[in-house]
Design goal:
The protein is an alpha/beta fold and 460 residues long. The chain has four domains: 137 residues, Response regulator (Rossmann fold, 3-Layer(aba) Sandwich), CATH 3.40.50.2300; 97 residues, PAS domain (Beta-Lactamase, 2-Layer Sandwich); 79 residues; 130 residues, 2-Layer Sandwich (Heat Shock Protein 90), CATH 3.30.565. The chain has 16 helices and 17 strands. The strands form four sheets. The protein has a five-stranded parallel sheet with strand order 2-1-3-6-7, with helices on both faces. The chain is elongated and about 130 Å long.
Length: 460
């Protein structure tokens, strides 16, 4: 500002005021000011609307109209200008009226020194720039597609943008002052108090996928990023939430198709490939017997082939069983987990044990939830065997405080807490948990084993 000319327009019907202010500006050495003058209200209004000057000195009395009238016209137009009201005497009512009408400040004629005038103009210009930036940012925020809203530490909504209106179907007037748990109902304890607030207090930011069952029966999924913010002295949290409902529905459909395809492949392996391998094994055994003593070397080779075919058949049946957990469909989740542990004990030799609580709520789970819980356990056990060198793996499933709790513990070498550091397996488990609105957690320490936890609130 100091290196450029600052253009100021005086809007006053008294030419003596122009001469007085011209002399005041001549005393200012800090910056270069160029003062213009108009006595006409309409000319001044046109100049203000166009913004041809950097700052405006506006007389309170302008013939039949006042400087306050001029300010209000600019306020209705929604235009920010560095406007300073000039009055003949100190008047608190004039001061308040000027500020409410958009003035940056006000000065008393005949009592203003050059330094006061210069400082007031500089502050008015800077304040105007700040207000323009804030107004621009507020307009962007108001029209951004994602939901952006502010919630107090008690969970009450205080700010609500157009994106939130689109996602949750509530106007700003309907949302303000209401609890977030009421606007975004959630099964069980609301994640705002249970997970989001503790995560923000610990790490400064929380990212959460939240399932909201709205009052009209519509299910909405949002991916929210939450940070702490102090608004007008009130501690609270800012939510930036994007609607991922369509993505969740598409994801569920992809998983359904994937599960069906796995079943088809597993069934084909079991019915076709295993049968063919069994037939080949029988044929090689017959040939081995026929050759017998006449061609002992060939008979020995065929015996080896027979063993290899049998091993291939066993392996194919193992793969088919992993792809199609038939026991899950016929006997339920508890039996499927026990069968999974038995498979790993017999085929891998690892000490894998499943402890499942006898609870009708477990057997009453929907097929969609049961298959995801089973797949998480299956992936966790496979990871423990492949990557942790675990010798003991414990699978537990039970109901605690209204939640279904799945835990897989091992005595391996531990792993990173970051899903991205452990390949696709951990990321897949996390995504499966999100699909059924479950909380996924990992606790690990180098050399101290790993515990994977999946917690699902049960419907009451």
């Amino acid at each position: 500002m100091n290196d450029s000319i600052i253009r100021v327009l005086l809007i006053d019907d008294d030419e003596d005021e122009f001469i007085l202010h011209r002399d005041l500006f001549a005393e200012i050495s800090r910056a270069c000011y160029e003062l213009d003058w108009t006595a006409d209200y309409d000319v001044g209004l046109a100049d203000l609307a166009a913004g041809w000057h950097d700052a405006y000195l506006i007389d309170y009395r302008l013939g039949e109209r006042t400087g306050i009238d001029l300010l209000r016209e600019m306020q209705r137009a929604g235009t920010d200008r560095a406007m300073i009201v000039l009055t003949g005497q100190t008047d608190e009512a004039v001061d308040l009226s000027a500020m409410e009408s958009g003035a940056s400040d006000y000065l008393v004629k005949g009592e203003t020194a050059a330094t006061d005038l210069e400082r007031t103009i500089r502050y008015a210009i800077e304040r105007c720039r700040t207000q323009s930036r804030l107004r621009f940012q507020a307009e962007i925020l108001r029209n951004v597609h994602d939901a952006v809203f502010y919630v107090t530490s008690e969970g009450t909504v205080r700010e609500w943008n157009e994106g939130a209106v689109r996602i949750f179907g509530l106007s700003e007037a309907e949302a303000l002052g209401r609890p977030l748990a009421e606007i975004c109902p959630h099964t069980g304890v609301h994640p705002f108090s249970e997970r989001i607030v503790p995560a923000v207090k610990k790490s400064g930011v929380a990212e959460e996928v939240v399932h909201c069952r709205l009052g009209n029966g519509r299910d909405v999924y949002v991916r929210a990023k939450v940070t702490r913010m102090n608004l007008r002295g009130e501690e609270g949290y800012v939510f930036c939430a994007s609607d991922i409902t369509k993505e969740k529905l598409l994801e569920s459909e992809i998983v359904r198709i994937s599960e069906n395809e796995q079943r088809r492949i597993g069934q084909d392996i079991h019915d076709d490939l295993c049968s063919q391998l069994s037939g080949i094994g029988c044929m090689t055994k017959v040939l081995e017997n026929r050759l017998g003593e006449r061609c002992p070397e060939e008979a020995t080779a065929l015996a080896e082939i027979t063993v290899m075919v049998a091993q291939a058949g066993t392996r194919a049946r193992e793969i088919a069983k992993g792809l199609v957990p038939a026991v899950l469909e016929t006997q339920g989740l508890a039996s499927a987990l026990r069968d999974l542990a038995q498979q790993k004990r017999e085929l891998i030799g690892v000490n894998c044990v499943a402890a499942v609580e006898e609870d009708p709520r477990i057997e009453g789970l929907s097929d969609g939830i049961s298959i995801q819980i089973y797949r998480i356990a299956q992936e966790a056990v496979t990871n423990a065997i492949r990557h942790s060198d675990a010798e003991v793996i414990d699978i537990s499933l039970g109901v605690f405080e209204g939640k279904l709790e799945l835990r897989i513990r091992d005595d391996g070498r531990g792993m990173s807490r970051e899903p991205s550091a452990n390949g696709l397996g951990l990321m897949t488990m996390q995504r499966r948990a999100e699909m059924i609105d479950a909380e996924f957690g990992l606790r690990a320490s180098p050399g101290g084993g790993t515990e994977i936890r999946c917690s699902l609130p049960l419907e009451t």
